[in-house]
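Appendix B.2, paired examples.
Example (i):
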Amino acid sequence: MLTAADFIPNSYTSTIENGNFEWSAPSNIALVKYWGKKDNQIPANPSVSFTLNNCKTITKLGFSKKDNHGNFSFDLLFEGKPKEDFKPKIQKFLKRVEVYLPFLKDYHFTIDTQNTFPHSSGIASSASGMAALAMNFMSLEKLLNPEMTEDYFYQKASFLARLGSGSACRSVKGNVVVWGNQANIEGSTDLFGVEFPYAIHENFKNYQDTILLVDKGEKQVSSTVGHDLMHNHPYAERRFAQAHENLDHLIKIFENGDLEEFIKVVESEALTLHAMMMTSMPYFILMKPNTLQIINAIWKFRNETQIPVCFTLDAGANVHVLYPENVTEKVLQFIQDELVVFCQNRQYICDKIGEGALLIDN
C-alpha cells in the first residue's frame, strides 16, 4: 500500500528550461458523500462519484526556469485576465505540495485557466480546477523523471489534487471513482481516488446528469467550514458508518443494475448530507425553497411514470437530476415542462458520465 512518503521524489534525472502543457479536468458528482475530514485532507468517510463530461476546467501551464530565491513565482489568469483573488488559494496549494514537487520554486509559472460552465453558475469549480492544475504539474515532473510509470503519474496527480480540494482527487480518472478506505473495494485509499474496480451494469453506462441551477450566488457557508463542523457533531460517527454501508450496497447495485435501489441510496445520501448541515453547531441550510419544489416534483413524476429518475445534491442549492440514457427524451421534456421554472433564469446544464482528465495537444 502506498504512503504519502512514496510521492516524495529522491532526485530528477532530466532538466528542462521552459515549456507549457494544457489539461482539462472535469467536475464530479458524489453518490456517496464525503463530509468531514481529518488532518491533511484525509476524508472522515469514503465516497464514490460519477465523473462528469461537459462541466470541466481547462488549464494551461507555462513554465520557465528562474533562480530559486526561496519563493513561489506565478501569474494567474482566469479566462485570459489576471485574477488576483484566486492567488491566495494557489499559494496555499503550492505550499502544501512543495515537499512532493520540489521543483516548484525553480520555475516561474503562468497559470491560465477557464471553465466550460459559467463561473457564476453555482457549480463548484475547485474539484475540476485543482485536478487540472495537478495534471499539469505532473506532466512537468514526468519530463524531469521520464522513467515514471503511468499508474504512478495518475495516482500522484490525484494525491496532489486532493491537497488542493478533497473531491478534486475524484476528477482525475473516470467513470466511477472511489476515494477513501473501504474494506470491500480493492485498492481503495484515503490518499487518492481510484477507478471503481468491479463490474458496472449496462444500466449505468453513459448515465446522464442534468444540473438545475437553482441559485448561482456564493454559498453562505464554505465547504471547508462545513467539513470542520463534523468534529464533535452529535451524529458524526453514525453518519460515517452509514457511508461505508451505502458504498458496500452500491457495489452490488453497480453489478446487478438495480435502479430502484440505486435511487434509494443516492437520494438518501443527498438528504443525509444536508441533514448533517442542519444539525451541526452552528447549523445552516444550503437548500432553497426551489430546491424542495424540484425534489417534490421529481418524486411525483417518478411515482406517476415509473421512470427511474432521481436527484442528488452537493453542498449547495442546485439539483443534479440523474437518469439512464434510455429515458433521456422523456426526462428532458419533464425538466422543460415542470422544473426549469424553479431554476434561476431558467438555466440548466446537460451533462453525463465522462472519462476524466485529458491532455490537450498544443
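Example (ii):
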Amino acid sequence: MPFALIAAVTVVDISAPPDVHLGPFLVAAPAVTSSFAGPRMTAFVGLVAVLAQSVVAIARTSINDLNHTYQIIALCLISAFVTLFAHLRERHEREMTQLRSVAEAAQHVLMQPLPRRSGPLRIASVYLAAEAEAQLGGDLYALARTADGTRVIVGDARGKGLDAIGEAAGVLGAFRALAHREAWLPELVGHLEDGVTVDRNGTTDEEEDDYTAEAFVTAAVLDIPDAAPELRLVSCGHPPPLLIRAGEVLSLEVSEPAPPLGLAQLLAPAFTAETFTFGAGEVLLLYTDGVIEARDRSGCFYPLFERVASRSWDGAESLLEYVRADLLRHAGGRLGDDAAMVAIERLPDAV
C-alpha cells in the first residue's frame, strides 16, 4: 500500500497543473508504514518517497526549486521521525512479549492441571487469560487428595502481573503442603491466611499498612468426602459456588463468611466451615469474579446464574464448555480480567 501510494502521488503530481503540488501527500507513505512495519522497512519507504519527490521536482521544474527543496527536506525529517517511532514501538512490543512470556511461564508452573478424576468426583477446569492487558491476573485453583476425600481451592489474588502471581503462589504452596495434614478445614484456612501475611514481617510500619490495605486473596476452600453425600465450605470473600441439582441451580451462600485471606490482622475472623448436601449426579461450579464481572458492549455483567439455570447439563465438562463459549460471546471475545472455573461432578456409586 505505501508503494502504491507513492506511485499514485508521483504520477498525478507530474501531470498536474503548475500551481498544484501533491508532494506533501508522500509523507503518508512512511507514516502509515511505521504503524505496522519495523524501522528498516519504514526507513526504506521514506527513502523511496524522497526519491519520488526528487523525480517530481526534476520533471516539473528543477531539483533546486525552492518549493521542492523544502518539500524534500520536510519529507526527510518526517521519515526520520517515524522511523524512530517504529523502532520504539517494535522495542516496546518485544518487551511486552517477553514480560507476558515470563508471567505465563510462572503461572503455568503454579497452575498445575487438575486431574480429571478424584475418587468419586469428575473434575473439569478452564482458565481464560485476559487479552486487554499484557499482564496476567492472580486467579488460582488447586486440588489435593486426602485419606477420605478431596480438598479444592479456587481463589483470586488482588491485582495483576507478577505481584498477584506471587500472592497466588503463597496460597497455593500452603494449600498443597497442608491440605493432606490438617484434619479440620478451618485450621487449613487459618494456615492459608498465614501464608498470605508471612511476607509482611520484614516490612516497616508504613510499608505494612500499604501492603495490608492492598494485598488480599479471595478464596473458596472445600472439603468433599468420598463416603458422605456432602461438602464443607469455607468462603473467604469469594463468589458463592453454584450447585446444579436435578435441573435446579442453587447458590451456596454461607451464613458466616470470612474476609479475604490477608485481612485477618484487620478483622480477626473466625473461620467456619458450613456443610451442604452434594449427592450423586450433582454438579458444583466454582469460579472467580472475572466470570461474573465480564461486561458486554452495553456494560452489562455476565449473568452466570441465569445462563446456568437456562438449560440442563450432562456433566461437568459440558457445563464448562458451554459457559466458556457463552462468556466469550458475551464479552465480545475479550475479557477485561482473567477468569477461572472448576466444575465438579459427583458420580454414582456404580461408576
